[in-house]
Queue: 2 jobs
Job 1
Amino acid sequence: MACEEEIRGLICDIGRRMYEKDFIAANDGNISVRIDEDRFLCTPTDVSKGFMKPEMIAVVDGQGRQIEGPIPRTSEIFMHLEIYKALPHVRAVAHAHPPHATAYAITDAKLPSGILPEVEVLLGEVPVAAYDTPGTKSFAQNLRPHLKQTVNTILLSNHGVVAFDQTLEKAYFHLETLEMYCRILLIGMQIGNIRPLGELKMRELLESKRRMGLADDRCGG
Ligand SMILES: [Zn+2]
């Protein structure tokens, strides 16, 4: 694993990419990386994630208490800690409000599946967590029913998206994949009817996903 200094730089880099991609506005969004059993780097609050400096990054413990850093940590740390607690393999969490994905999170429209093969392989099932006031522990607890090995991206009702994985870049890529998918869906729906892959081709795809060692509840592996 990279040293703490490198991870601080990476958090700034991913923050900039989230901002430049319009996944976040103003001071929105937050990022964290687990660097030890009880030690996490996370983004500061009230700072644009597009313009962070490595020394701004906060250090917190497993309770969310700030250990280091000149600026208070993100108020969303409890959501991040809930994910780390449930999924020991996760080392990084990225939260943003990508517009097309968030559009699904503010409506009752169900995010369709079985349309694009890459999305099925890279994301798989994308659950929707119930709404509660951002920053609260009860909001963080709403993620619990969805935190399982086969999930790496969750839509947050009336809020946005959170993605997580073994590396920060992978977590960020999940945000990109979901946002691109939602954008394509919304454009496609304006042109015509969305054509599903179909049951047979989906089964084939999930079988190749299983062979790649990627777990998916829909293929029992
Ligand atoms: Zn948010």
Job 2
Amino acid sequence: MRDDGRVELAHRVPMAELVDRLAIPSLIRTGDELVGPCPGCGGKDRFGVSLRKGVFLCRRCDAKGDQIALVKLVLGLDFPAALEWLVGPRQNLTPQQRAEQRRRADQHRRQREAEAERRRQDAIALARQIWSRAEPATRTPVVDYLARRGIILRDSAQMPGCFRFEPSARLVVPDDNRRGEFVTVHEGPAMLAAISDASGALTGVHRTWIDLGQPKGKVVIPHPFKAGETVAAKKVYGSKKGGAIRIHTPRDAEAMVMAEGIETTLSAMVARDGQLEGAAFWAGVDLGNMAGARRLGPGLKYAGLPDLTDRDAFVPPQWVKRLVFVQDGDSEPKLTRAKLLSGLRRAMALRPGLTAAIVHPGEGIDMNDLLMGATDVTQREGDE
Ligand SMILES: [Zn+2]
């Protein structure tokens, strides 16, 4: 189809407005994103719309794309029909009119980016405020919470500096009856973990609400608006973009072990049993942050190839010569593995000489054995 400028017009439609127009239900705003069930495959929070970038992505079915792709997904239209639904029928514009359209589209995009950056800075400021008001974690319920998760640090008298304790933190959920308002569902002790960006600056905090009366040590609160569901006991404030929770970084470290979650990363650390003594242990906070954007297309869903134009994903520091990702969770192991491969290959591409491996703890498999027996990942396609 000859480009008549309508694709650019379609890209000017703000995602928030489009989501309203398509009446996609149950999306909740967090920072620059709308998160909720996928209009294609359902679920709870696998679907995200980036308001800043004007794109969407489903972590399960891998549906993704721009405004036009979203209309295709929700209404089941083909490309020409989706474009027409969005911006009307084909137009015959003069080159001047088309140039003017492009200029306005650029201006609009810059404004949106500036607004998103302002919101990001506000969120970072809030995260720093939360962090500065919290207490050192040593000899607090944070130690007991981790012990409940089977994590006994060798020197629990000295908790890693990335952790802090809050005696009382408010857990809120969006109010279903009053748009933009929140309802407090719990107030109590919490573990904080610092999320640092590549330069080491604190850009976010990860909060876990503690309830030592629960088997897993986290609060279990029935969701006030979703029957049969509980409220997530963990929350990230600020920006996790390219960041990590730097749990343990020995001097002269050359290896790094990273899992998505704090508990898994710590489990790997306490299970290493004398091996990997000099390794750093960092949590990647979020699988998407560890993976970054992937190259997608026919046959590439599980290929695990990074899209190197993504500048936002986590990249290990220069000193990392060996990077080991621990595969966490098991909701969709094949896709999770593809994402981890993408992140490792990104690191290999950007840090020449770095070697990489994935370990996947399973039933009855010892974490330490795994760390020792990890098979290297290669840059080639289809190395599995
Ligand atoms: Zn989906």
